[in-house]
């Protein structure tokens, strides 16, 4: 069956409790945003869960298809944010790119830009938590997350 997004965010909530001071308090700040967003979704839809440039492929006659979906449901804004950390650090962390991309996503999806940025803060911290809990660094997710936090004016909670 499909899993709700609040289950998907479990590792972020754990990371916020276990490592509240990491990255200038990124995890607790993002966890607070995630909890608020999860409590009041704008809609509840089936989600891809890992939508980015590497998971949308041209299958010739079958057309462009999304692969590697996750069994999730929740707020539609969640599925639009992985693009902010892709395809690599040079692109994702380019000055002004976050603001431009978030503006395009908001305009094309009809979703509120501030809500998208709040989801982006939650998503980037979740991505960083997954990476760090598996022993990897997460410079792109952390870098984008810090920029989103600055745009939103979200201060560290620690």
TrEMBL record:
InterPro entries for the chain: Kinase-like_dom_sf, NH2Glyco/OHUrea_AB-resist_kin
Pfam families given in the database record: APH_6_hur
Looking up SUPFAM superfamilies in the UniProt record yields:
Protein kinase-like (PK-like)
What Gene Ontology molecular function terms does this protein carry?
Answer: kinase activity; phosphotransferase activity, alcohol group as acceptor
Q: Which Gene3D superfamilies match?
A: Transferase(Phosphotransferase) domain 1 (1.10.510.10)
In terms of superkingdom, the source organism counts as Bacteria
Extract one GO BP annotation from the record.
secondary metabolic process
**Which keywords does the record carry?**
Kinase, Transferase
What's the protein called, per UniProt?
Aminoglycoside/hydroxyurea antibiotic resistance kinase
Its source organism is Leifsonia aquatica ATCC 14665
């Amino acid at each position: 069956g499909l899993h709700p997004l609040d289950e998907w965010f479990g590792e972020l909530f754990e990371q916020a409790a276990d490592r509240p001071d990491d990255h200038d308090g990124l995890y607790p700040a993002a966890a607070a945003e995630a909890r608020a967003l999860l409590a009041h979704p704008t809609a509840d839809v089936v989600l891809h869960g890992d939508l980015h440039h590497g998971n949308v492929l041209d299958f010739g006659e079958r057309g462009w298809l999304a692969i590697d979906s996750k069994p999730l449901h929740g707020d539609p804004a969640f599925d639009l944010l992985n693009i902010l950390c892709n395809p690599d650090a040079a692109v994702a962390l380019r000055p002004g790119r976050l603001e431009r991309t978030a503006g395009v996503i908001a305009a094309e999806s009809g979703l509120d830009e501030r809500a998208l940025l709040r989801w982006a803060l939650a998503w980037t911290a979740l991505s960083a938590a997954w990476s760090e809990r598996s022993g990897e660094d997460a410079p792109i997710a952390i870098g984008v997350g810090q920029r989103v936090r600055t745009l939103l004016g979200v201060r560290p909670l620690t």
